[in-house]
Structures are given as C-alpha cells and as structure tokens.
Specification:
This protein has 228 residues and is mainly alpha-helical. Helix content is 74%, strand content 0%.
Length: 228
C-alpha cells in the first residue's frame, strides 16, 4: 500500500505541476487550448508511468467512484485521497516558489491556477452553473475512467482515452470554473492563493465527489458496464 500511496502523490504532483503550471507560467502564450492539453497530457504521463502501481487515480472523486463501483475499499479511498492532496499541495508549493522569483508576480493578481466562479473569475458564471458543470463533468469523467479500465477494455489505450477526456472537459469548462473535477487539484492551489479560492473550495469538493460517486453507482448497476 505504501508504494501505491507514493505513486498517487507523484501522479497528482504531475497533474497539478503540468496543468496549473501551464496556466501560471504560459497561460498568456498558449491560451485555454494549451492549458487544456497540458492537463490532458499530464494524465497520459501519469497513467503510463505509475498506473500499473496504483491505477493512477490522482483524484479523490475518481477513487470514490471506484468505491461505489465496488472496485476499491473505503479505507483505501481515505489513504488515496490523503496522498492525492499531499501531491497537489507539494506541486502548488513548487509552482509558487518558482512564480515568486519573477519580479512582477503576485498570487493575488496572477493567481496559481486555482478554481473559482462568480464575479471577478473568468466568465463570471454563477454558483449554480459551477455546481452543475462540476457535477456533470466529473460524472462523465469517472464514467469514462471506469469504462476504459474495466475488464475486457483495451488496457493499452486507457491512459490516452482518459487524458483526452480531461482535455475535452477543459475545453468546455475552463471559462466556467477553471475546471476542477478533482478536489485535490483544487485544494493545492487554494492553500496558497487563499481568500476567495479557499472560500469557493467547498464547491470543488462537493460537486466532484457527488458526480464521481454517482458514476460509480451507475457503473455498478450495470448501466455503463460491459456484460460479464
């Protein structure tokens, strides 16, 4: 189990470092398309490097979906979630250490790739829009993960399919919430951004966890699972 938890720390670090780092350091140059690709490619990198060790969940919502799908124990979910949060916080710390070495950088003005909604945040979508998007997007994301990793699915393609799905989700939703679909990914930057990012954080726990849990239940019911 220790090896699995270390893998989840490293994998979540990759996700936040690539994804949020692209927004912090290169956002103006690569735009939302580039940021979307960075998040998707980070999943591909993690899946093919540490997936064989831990399954590369990198996300408490994915791990909870595995629990409700009957593919993971609740005690393992707790361990995975803590490891994922640790990986995200370490990645966010590294990002802010690098960013603050730039003379004109400030967290308040430039951010750290944190999620949000409402006045002053990207498209200024409402709380209701944020909750709906995060719930639906996470449901779809975890449904794809469960389907791509089930018995009989082409295992060699799973990492690519999951990464492309996350890219697509970002292409739809960056302007709405910055795209979380992952409580750990949201927690890491929010710890250092503070203020509104911390105040909004409950949305990026509640909606993704609910979406992931529902995806697992639907999968377990057989509706999105291949016939045994």
């Amino acid at each position: 189990m220790t090896k699995k938890l270390i893998a989840e720390v490293l994998g979540t670090f990759i996700l936040v470092f690539f994804g949020c780092g692209s927004a912090v350091f290169m956002g103006a140059e690569i735009g939302m398309l580039g940021i979307s690709l960075a998040f998707g490619l980070s999943i591909v990198a993690a899946a093919y490097s540490i997936g064989a060790i831990s399954g590369a969940h990198l996300n408490p919502a994915v791990s909870l979906g595995m629990v409700t799908a009957g593919r993971m124990s609740f005690s393992d979910f707790i361990g995975y979630s803590l490891a994922q949060i640790v990986g995200a916080v370490i990645a966010a710390l590294v990002l802010i250490l690098i960013a603050t070495e730039q003379a004109d950088y400030s967290v308040a003005e430039n951010g750290l790739g944190q999620n949000g909604y409402g006045a002053g945040y990207l498209g200024e979508y409402s709380l209701i829009a944020a909750l709906i998007f995060e719930f639906v997007a996470t449901f779809l994301f975890v449904t794809v993960i469960l389907g791509a990793t089930q018995s009989g699915a082409p295992a060699a393609m799973a990492g690519l399919v999951i990464g492309l799905t996350l890219t697509g989700i970002h292409l739809v939703g960056i302007n709405i919430t910055g795209v979380s679909v992952n409580p750990a990914r949201s927690f890491g930057p929010a710890v250092f951004a503070g203020g509104k990012a911390l105040a909004d954080l409950w949305v990026f726990f509640a909606a993704p966890l609910a979406g992931g849990a529902l995806a697992g239940m639907v999968f377990k019911s057989g509706a999105t699972r291949a016939a045994d």
